[in-house]
Design a protein that fits this description.
The protein is built from 2 helices and 5 strands. The chain has helices at 18-26, 81-90, and strands spanning 3-8, 35-41, 44-50, 63-64, 71-72. The longest helix is centred in the last third of the chain and has 10 residues, at 81-90. It starts with a strand and ends in a 13-residue tail after the last helix. The relative contact order is 0.19. It is globular, with a radius of gyration of 15 Å.
Amino acid sequence: MCGIVGIFDISEKREINRDLLHTMNESQFHRGPDEGGLHIEAGLGFGHRRLSIIDLSSGQQPMHSADGNVVLTYNGEIYNFPELRKELEALGYAFKAHCDTVK
């Protein structure tokens, strides 16, 4: 099972301590030994440890939208993602991987 950590400062949007966030993320290494990633911006930092199940070679998180305006991390599985993917591809969306996270 994957793991997620985060630090939020929505009132003052202070700089997030990268070392602290990294230490928090590594403390849950056992939850996701395959990969780990961090996202840090003003007032927000989150980390993800990944246990690869569906797509072993891609699906890194946090994931960024194509335009960079949205960042996502989650723990779970979208069970009907193959069907959703077909629908989205028919609408013109392009996918970089075969994972239920990465578009």
